[in-house]
Design goal:
mainly alpha; 4 strands; 515 residues; two-stranded antiparallel sheet; single chain
Length: 515
């Protein structure tokens, strides 16, 4: 006990000083303002934690700096919004996505076939890249002809802004269904499956040496078969599924949107790790360049598809009640009338922003901690990082475990984006802003420490919200009648200052290692 206190004495002293600073800051506010500010700090910290935790997992376990984490956070928000506001677009896109994944999910088969092909290294690389380019070329050709109902950025009445406003007013009008005109359904489905299979085989041939250990059994075909079946059902029952989702309660639609955002992040993370990150594990500079480039590409794609203007994600019915006993003064009224706000200590608190988001953040923290520390997969992950050869000798596919870790880290980021969007709105720069806060939080808490990501995110959220509040009410200067109001640029500057102080004293962060 004494040894641990001595070892962590600097961190404890810093935390005590920060706590004292926050206590003094709270003394200058009313109890109502303190409560609202603290709850908003927890809310901001929870969203920051989801991005920081994913970044910390990927870097701490795989030693990969994923600078695209902020863009992936943004993509999660836009994907979730699409499912919630335009389910018809989501259903139209679902079939191509499932069929493309079906082709890539046959990686064991393509790997086994690639391992049996004997070619000179140079010829193998040339043929591999030709197959990859041919596959993606065919995919682009099919997708440009595949019917997808989507908004029109050049017509304001059909833009995402208008659809968001209509959904917020409860006007959920099903747009006209698009039909197969430029290509037949059979050719479209076959082209999607074949193009993804060709690209996947080209990638397997390029990584032929890594495919020798692939085993083939009936389980390898179960996932591709389910994906293929799902894609076919989605296109056959497109109109029925779309009508059902438009008629669904917005509460359930919100849950589906969140789940789809998480799954999209998991899928993107797995795709990134297996095709782009895996060959660069021993090249950190290339990793930085690649993830930074992917972040830029993702930003441009979002701007091209959803546009540059900011728009809102309407909250579900459970958080928008205004009649009856709203604002609620007790839990019974809150649940009965689905109040959007509740009175606490005389202050009006937004249920979704200041109560729901922090609760979700705490739940995610507990679940991921249990996954890493108390589950078999967590034990395999930690063992694979420490001694990969030993774990592989036990018959465990470490590469698959690493893919799972990367997918989990990206899934947390997209989850954060979908969770925060109804509170903050959607804008193409939302990812850049939050990535900066997440990196500052990680530097404060410890870059490779999962608990450090939680602690750093909480501190960043609290300090930012206290600075924002004092920007409104002002800080009385001693011995004068003047009042100092921190300007908006001082909000991020305050967290940067804390980061600098912490790193000067503890280069590894409050809970990080010294390495």
């Amino acid at each position: 006990m004494k040894t641990n206190l001595r070892k962590n004495s600097k961190a404890i002293i810093i935390l005590v000083i920060i706590a004292a600073f926050l206590f003094v800051a709270a003394r200058g506010m009313s109890g109502r303002d303190v409560l609202i500010t603290v709850l908003r700090g927890f809310s901001t910290g929870s969203v920051t934690f989801l991005v920081a935790a994913g970044f910390s997992l990927i870097f701490g376990l795989l030693d990969v700096l994923n600078l695209a984490q902020g863009t992936l956070y943004m993509i999660g928000a836009y994907v979730g919004w699409t499912v919630y506001v335009r389910p018809d677009t989501f259903i139209d896109v679902l079939t191509p996505v499932l069929l493309i994944l079906a082709g890539f999910s046959l990686s064991a088969l393509w790997g086994r076939l690639a391992s049996r092909i004997q070619l000179a290294p140079k010829a193998r690389k040339i043929i591999s890249w030709l197959l990859i380019l041919a596959g993606f070329g065919l995919l682009a050709l099919v997708l440009t002809r595949y019917p997808i109902a989507i908004w029109n950025l050049n017509n304001y009445s059909e833009s995402p802004i208008t659809y968001s406003y209509m959904a917020d007013q409860g006007l959920r009008i099903i747009p006209a269904e698009v039909t197969f005109e430029k290509i037949s359904p059979f050719l479209a489905l076959a082209g999607l499956l074949v193009s993804s299979a060709i690209s996947a085989f080209g990638i397997a041939l390029l990584n032929r040496d890594e495919s020798r250990s692939q085993t083939i059994n009936w389980r390898k075909f179960l996932v591709p078969a389910l994906l293929l079946l799902g894609g076919i059902l989605a296109v056959v029952f497109n109109a029925q599924i779309t009508s059902w989702m438009y008629a669904m309660s917005t509460n359930w639609l919100f849950v589906i949107a969140i789940l789809i955002a998480i799954l999209s992040g998991v899928g993107l993370g797995a795709l990134m790790e297996t095709t782009l990150i895996r060959p660069l594990y021993n090249r950190p500079i290339y990793q930085l360049m690649l993830t930074l480039g992917l972040g830029t590409i993702g930003l441009q794609i979002v701007q091209a598809v959803w546009g540059r203007p900011e728009f809102v994600w309407p909250k579900p019915e459970f958080f928008t009640g205004t009649g009856g006993a709203c604002p609620a003064t007790n839990l019974a009224d809150l649940l009965e009338y689905n109040c959007s706000t509740v009175f606490l200590l005389g202050g009006r608190v937004r249920v979704y922003d200041e109560i729901f988001i922090p609760i979700v953040g705490i739940i995610v923290l507990i679940v991921v901690w249990i996954l890493l520390k108390r589950s078999r997969i967590g034990m395999i992950i930690r063992a694979g990082v420490q001694d990969r050869q030993m774990v592989e000798a036990l018959g465990i596919n470490v590469r698959r475990v690493f893919t799972l870790v990367f997918a989990l880290g990206v899934g947390l980021a997209t989850f954060g984006g979908a969770l925060a969007a109804p509170s903050t709105g959607l804008t193409p720069v939302m990812g850049e802003r939050l990535l900066l806060s997440a990196l500052i939080a990680l530097a404060i808490g410890g870059l490779t420490s999962f608990p450090g990501a939680a602690l750093g995110s909480l501190l960043v959220g609290l300090i930012q919200q206290f600075m924002i509040k004092y920007g409104q009410i002002g800080i009385p200067l001693p011995f004068t009648d003047a009042v100092f109001k921190p300007s908006p640029p001082l909000v991020p500057a305050s967290t940067v200052l804390l980061m600098v102080i912490v790193l000067l004293i503890l280069p590894g962060g409050l809970l990080g290692s010294k390495e």
